[in-house]
Design brief:
Strand content of chain B: 15-25%
Low-confidence stretches of chain A: 1-10
Distance between the termini of chain A: 34 Å
Helix content of chain A: 40-55%
Radius of gyration of chain A: 16 Å
Radius of gyration of chain B: 39 Å
CATH topology of chain A: Arc Repressor Mutant, subunit A
Distance between the termini of chain B: 56 Å
Low-confidence stretches of chain B: 1-13, 486-494
Largest sheet of chain A: 3 strands, antiparallel
Number of helices of chain A: 4
Oligomer: heterodimer
Order of helices and strands of chain A: HEHHEEH
């Protein structure tokens, strides 16, 4: 894992995008909270800085909304861990939000980088 | 996400308790930190460095745990509610399937509940309309009815002069008003008609707070003698007689021959007194206010309390003024005081007890209904033993099973409640239609939201009651023994028979209580029917006319009219005898006058008094009132001959204890055209029930019609043909004599007697219907349990028969079981009835509340019903051959 590059600021997360990241992370399969945190860190090359507390808050909120569900299992190092997975409705939310995000990002970059 | 989908997802998850939620959060956070530390160590950080970094990356863990704890608890709540709903919809669906699977059971239960709810709803709506609902006036709780009260004779109406003084001197009232009911003849356009009217003081409608629908109410001063005559119509009368003519206000009607201007219309159902067609003002003549008239107490008085004044304070105030009135006129007012009580109380006072008795009775019916359906449910639950056992084996908890069974009961109860509410609406209208018309406020009886809520709540409660008992019973047994029983082919062996027996015994007990009530009322009614009214009702026809003052103001005109009418009546074919009178027996006519004997003033506190009646010669003969001593009136007792009086036996006994009434002289203070009513006693006649069959005949005395003419004569005709045949002739005759005179209250002797029996008959009918329902239901209960045990004991019966028991012995065994139930029910029921019968005393006439004849008859009825309920099961048991009985298992 690369060290944090000085001089480049970490982007704090835009409202709502954390949910999208979590849903996308879970789209690859059942995962515990730490796994999601690690995945986000690795995939974004630590550009996006997610405070873990915020992550867990989002997880529990999504669970209550019914986008994801949780069950307790045993981790590969034999510890009791809470595993989250996507529900059918969560999958639908992910599809919709991802599409929204792409259109949003496309629109912004079209303004910033006129062809 | 759709609602249902979310439900299904939510209920798939286990629910967790509060501490478990906290533990989970602890674990989840700890796991995260540990993993992070491990990963950081793996890339070369020291342990302490790693821990520090992990913690800083994580953020405020303890605050997070708090936030998440709240969030997860809320989620748990959502989940529990969702699960409850999901279970509920499942239970309801399942309940419907179960119910459809056994339609007979469902039909019987629903019908039983419907009968109970229907009956209860009807009675409750009567109680609500008559007793509970406030009067339809402004702040009705501030209205008091004010009475004079004699220390011995009790409450009476108020004299005009006393009323005027009360009104002027009381301090605790915003206003005091008075009314009396009278009749008036409407003539002019259309058929002449006699109207029910009320004469009121001019503040009447303002005091009650009744606003006119159109026009105005009375103005100050309109009650004065000589003020122009004004009338206010009830809207019902306005619609009936004038077709709702919008220009009625301002028109002049001819009432009793006088022109009267209509000034307003009010809603008769929201005004007072009820059933009145028009209101006019009192217009008392000045002489009515003199001391001489203070003994005549016939005016009814209502006051409106000042805000915040209690009834007790008002009573002190009224009593203070009454004391002043004694000083003012000791001759008439010695022994009198005054008091007030809430107007509503004064209207419904006598009807409270009977209505509560009916309500209690219907409550008992409801108990029987609950027990009956509970019995059915127990039996059915027992039959479903296996199903329930299987569900228990598959992990349904006891609570879950109970809930399922209660839901089934509730579905049945609500279906029964809906049907019952319909029956209740019907029952209420029947009740109103067939209730004796003298019951007050019948117009206020109806279905409203409160009654609807009541019925619905009752249905739910019933469902809970009869669902819970069998449900608990069914869920109690352990799974294994039941499944084993099933494999032996003895489904339902644990079938709750003990509980069912208890239920049936209580049903029988309640049925007995109701039967005793019905029995006592029946005995009382039979006694009432045998009461001698003092006259012969058969063959008697009576009718009344009112002679308007404008054309019959002089006594000589009234005498002439009587003579000519009697002459005409006697000429009608089929008429044996005819006479005129004032104050027919068994009506509510109360005209009491005090009198002196031989001109001597008696004790001021205990003046002789009696009901005064007027009769023409031939009256006693026409009515069939026996002459006891002396003579009755003859055609020679004319206007100009010496005045004579005939007295009743009771009067003679009370005031002439030596038996020497004849020859003494009676005098009253009541007079007209310079002559006082009184005369020499010439005869004694039999007592007549004046006010009702159950009320002792009061002392009465009679004056001669020609010497004491009457402006509202009632003619009595004894004929060989029936009333219908006579009616035509009577109408023709009166038309011929005076085209403007309406005939009213055309009735027969039998009708008079029947009207006097109407109330006891009504209570008897209702209670008897309830008792019959309870008896039938409990007989069905007995039948159910006996039939069930016969089926259950088939093998035993077979063995007995194989060992030589005769069919008769088997029958005896089965019937014996039914009788055992009956005996338990009887013992309980008789005890309860003994305790409760006292509540009926007010409704009973000449029957002790612990009347042994009633109790014995009720016992017989119950034993017969119990035996009847056993007949079918006993027959089927006796028909079993030993072989098939043994094979049957």
């Amino acid at each position: 894992m690369a060290d944090r590059k000085d001089g480049e600021s970490n982007l704090s997360l835009l409202q709502g995008t954390l949910d999208l990241l979590i849903l996308q992370a879970l789209a690859w399969g059942q995962m515990h909270g730490y796994g999601i945190s690690r995945l986000i860190r690795e995939r974004t090359n630590e550009v996006l800085l997610v405070e873990d507390a915020a992550l867990y808050q989002a997880l529990h909120r999504l669970e209550r909304k019914g986008s994801i569900e949780a069950e307790w299992g045993v981790s590969d190092n034999n510890r009791r861990a809470k595993y989250y997975s996507l529900t059918t409705s969560g999958r639908r939310v992910l599809r919709r939000e991802a599409e929204n995000w792409r259109r949003y990002a496309g629109a912004i970059s079209a303004v910033l980088d006129p062809a | 996400m759709s609602f249902g989908r979310r439900f299904r997802r939510l209920i798939g998850l286990p629910t967790r308790s509060g501490p478990a939620i906290d533990r989970d959060l602890e674990d989840e956070v700890a796991f995260h930190l540990e993993m992070r530390v491990r990963d950081l160590q793996r890339i070369g950080r020291s342990e302490s460095e790693a821990r520090q970094q992990a913690a800083s990356e994580f953020g405020d863990a303890s605050r997070l745990k708090q936030t998440l704890g709240r969030m997860d608890r809320a989620a748990q709540r959502d989940r529990r509610i969702a699960r409850w709903f999901a279970d509920f919809t499942h239970d309801v669906r399942f309940a419907f399937r179960q119910i459809l699977r056994s339609p007979l059971f469902a039909a019987v239960s629903i019908l039983t509940v419907a009968i109970g709810i229907g009956a209860t709803t009807s009675i409750m709506s009567a109680v609500r309309g008559i007793i509970l609902r406030p009067l339809p006036f402004e702040e009705p709780e501030r209205l008091l009815r004010i009475y004079s009260r004699h220390e011995r004779l009790g409450p009476t109406a108020v004299s005009v002069a006393d009323f005027a003084d009360l009104r002027a001197q009381v301090a605790s009232f915003d206003g005091v008003a008075a009314w009396y009911e009278s009749t008036t003849n409407l003539s002019g356009e259309g058929k002449p008609e006699r109207l029910e009217a009320a004469r009121v003081t001019d503040n009447w409608f303002n005091l009650l707070g009744v606003r006119p629908q159109s026009g105005r109410t009375f103005l100050d001063g309109e009650e004065q003698h000589g003020a122009p005559r004004r009338a206010i119509l009830s809207d019902a009368f306005w619609r009936r007689r004038f077709g709702g003519d919008p220009n009625i206000v301002g028109r002049t009607l001819r009432l009793d021959g006088n022109p009267v201007e209509v000034v307003g219309i009010v809603d008769g159902e929201r005004a007072f007194p009820a059933n009145v067609e028009l209101w006019m003002t009192t217009r008392f003549a000045p002489e009515e206010f003199t001391n001489a008239q203070r003994g005549a107490r016939w005016l009814r008085v209502v006051g409106r309390l000042k805000p915040g004044v209690t009834v007790e304070q008002a009573n002190d105030d009224v009593a203070r003024v009454a004391k002043l009135l004694v000083e003012k006129d000791p001759r008439h007012n010695t022994g009198y005081t005054a008091f007030g009580r809430p107007l509503q109380e004064s209207i419904i006072g006598n009807y409270r007890r009977p209505l509560y008795v009916l309500l209690g009775a219907v409550g008992l019916v409801m108990l029987v209904v609950c027990a009956n359906v509970a019995g059915l449910m127990v039996a059915r639950t027992a039959a479903r033993d296996t199903e329930i056992a299987v569900r228990a084996a598959m992990g349904a908890g006891r609570g879950r099973i109970v809930r399922q069974l209660v839901t089934e009961a509730l579905v049945l109860a609500i279906a029964g409640g809906a049907l019952g509410f319909g029956l209740g609406v019907l029952g209420t209208s029947l009740l109103v239609r067939f209730a004796p018309p003298d019951i007050p406020r019948l117009a206020d009886v109806g279905i409203d939201r409160m009654i609807f809520t009541f019925s619905f709540g009752l249905a739910l409660m019933t469902g809970l009651v009869f669902g819970l008992a069998p449900a608990l019973q069914a869920s109690r047994h352990d799974v294994r023994s039941r499944l084993q029983a099933e494999s032996r082919g003895a489904a339902g062996r644990f079938g709750g028979t003990r509980l069912r027996r208890v239920l049936v015994v209580s049903e029988l007990a309640v049925a007995i209580v109701l039967l005793v009530c019905a029995g006592l009322l029946l005995r009382s009614f039979a006694k009432l029917q045998r009461v001698d009214p003092g006259f012969r009702p058969g063959g008697l026809t009576a009718f009344t006319v009112t002679l308007p003052e404008s054309r019959y103001g002089r006594l000589v005109d009234q005498r002439q009219f009587l003579d000519r009418t009697l002459e005409g009546l006697r000429a009608i074919p089929g008429v044996e005898n005819a006479a005129a009178s004032f104050g027919l027996p068994l009506t509510d006519a109360r005209f009491q006058l005090t009198f002196t004997i031989d001109g001597k003033d008696g004790d001021a506190n205990n003046e002789p008094r009696g009901q005064i009646r007027v009769a023409s010669p031939g009256y006693f003969e026409s009515m069939g009132i026996p002459l006891v001593k002396g003579r009755t009136f003859t055609p020679q007792d004319r206007w100009d001959s010496p005045q004579v009086i005939v007295v009743s036996e009771e009067l003679a006994r009370r005031f002439f204890p030596k038996g020497d009434a004849i020859g003494h002289r009676l005098d009253t203070g009541w007079g007209r055209e310079g002559r006082k009513l009184g005369g020499d006693i010439v005869g004694i006649v039999g007592d007549v029930k004046q006010f009702g069959l159950s009320i002792d005949a009061p002392p009465a005395y009679y004056a001669v019609a020609d010497q004491w003419p009457i402006d509202e004569p009632t003619f009595v005709v004894r004929g060989t043909t029936n009333t219908v045949a006579l009616a035509g002739g009577i109408h023709d005759l009166v038309q011929q004599l005076d085209t403007e005179l309406p005939i009213f209250d055309l009735t027969t002797g039998e009708t008079l007697v029947a009207a006097s029996l109407a109330q006891p008959r009504f209570y008897l009918m209702v209670i008897a219907a309830f008792a019959t329902a309870a008896l039938l239901l409990s007989a069905i209960g007995v039948y159910g349990i006996i039939a069930y045990t016969v089926r259950q004991r088939t093998r035993e019966i077979g063995v007995r028969m194989a060992l030589g028991a005769s069919a008769a012995q088997i029958v005896r065994m089965v019937v014996g079981e039914g009788l055992t139930l009956a005996a338990f029910g009887l013992a309980l029921g008789v005890m309860a009835a003994m305790g409760l019968a006292g509540q009926l005393t007010e409704l009973l006439f000449d029957v002790p509340e612990r009347d042994w004849i009633t109790f014995v008859s009720v016992t017989a009825v119950l034993v017969v019903s119990a035996v009847a309920a056993c007949v079918l099961p006993a027959r089927s048991a006796a028909r079993l051959g030993p072989q098939e009985a043994l094979r049957g298992e």
